[in-house]
Amino acid sequence: MQSGWRIGTLFKIPLFIDPSWFLIVAFLTFQNGSIWQQRYETWTPTMAYGAGFIMALLLFASVLLHELGHSLVAQSKGIDVTSIKLFLFGGVASIEKEPQKPGDMFQVAIAGPLVSVFLWIFCTFIVALLLKYAPTISPVAFVILSSIASLNLTLTLFNLIPGLPLDGGQMLKAAIWKKSGDYLTGAHWAARSGLWLGWIISIVGFSDVLGLTSLLGLPEVVGFWGVLIGWFMRQNAVSADRLTDVQAALLNLDAQSVMTRNYRVFDGHQTLRQFAEEMVLKSDPTVAYFVASDGRYRGLVTADVLQTIERSLWDSTKLEDVAQPLQSIPHVIEKTPLPEVIQQMERSGNDRITVLSPAGAVAGVIDRGDITRAVGEKLGFGISSTLLQQIKTSGDYPPGLQLGRIADSVLEFQGKNAIGVTAEEVKEESA
Ligand SMILES: [Zn+2]
Predict the structure, then answer these.
(1) Domain ranges in the chain?
(2) Is position 67 annotated as part of the catalytic site?
(3) Average pLDDT in the 11-27 region?
(4) In angstroms, what is the span from residue 368 Cα to ligand 1's centroid?
(5) Cα of 166 to ligand 1 centre, how many Å?
(6) Catalytic one among 67, 320, 340, 428?
(7) Domain 255-413 adopts which CATH fold?
């Protein structure tokens, strides 16, 4: 599920360009071209706008190198990088799972700003060398190189702002995780910080647009940019925070607190014929059918059994003879933590899992609808019975709540066992 155009592969990582990237390249070309044309009177429009275009491309080359910094360190930690994408706000490297140790997370996060700071030093050094040994070289080259140098410095400083989804936020998350020993505490505070900083950036940007403040004397467009970037940060921070809420809810639930008694028990001495008659009358795919006889559970039976056994044998076959023993069907015990319940259900490929009591009897059943309802209640939001019914019959979690993946992520940072949380950046443009 990757939007945009794939333009190639670097270090086995697919590179994508989002359509919004063309917008920003056009904007940067025009913005810088017009400023330079005014500032350097001897420049022809072709020179000014050509330089603006080259600068935009070099800026994105810098962003790409920054993303590669994150990606290569992630790869060295054994984490797959699924893609790098360039878009309106810069670049984003998507990794297949989060680092499992705070130290690793910190290193992956800081690698990008380290690349940017290196590019700033490198470009500044080249400009100084040229000034000293080749001062007559094209003025366009100087202007482009010094702009790239300062943009890399901006990129570094901006990304170090300590709020998700910026690198600084990722570093803050790792630091709090390390200090508190709890991943979720780190994730929660880094998301909160991203939300507050996003608001601050938007408000400062907005007052700049209104002419109430002036950001370091930069043009008003920087303020407009601030409003947009602040909005982008808040969106990301809110979804990161929501994710940690869901993760925390999963950790606080177990099989017993989620299971229902949405099952029926048939007498094992009944024949298949009797079972078939009942099924004709009221078969319900969301209900589980168990078989018990002589005070013991004999197993699970489904309507499918009627297709596997010949009709002529229905009168002579007892339900207890065809039931699948409880130990052979997907099951958990009452105390099994919910993330493990979800993972087992996903791995078994079944839409339902049976909960067994310590004595080995059926204590309850759980399907994806039950899990979604329990998580919703824990988080304090109601889920309509229509949606729950839809989840139960389709066997899929709602698109915005991929509990299978979230459960994997919870088990992952608990050291038990992947999630596509991304290391993201926002880049700021300045003229
Ligand atoms: Zn970064």
Answers:
(1) 1-160, 178-251, 255-413
(2) yes
(3) 87
(4) 36
(5) 7
(6) 67
(7) CBS-domain (3.10.580)
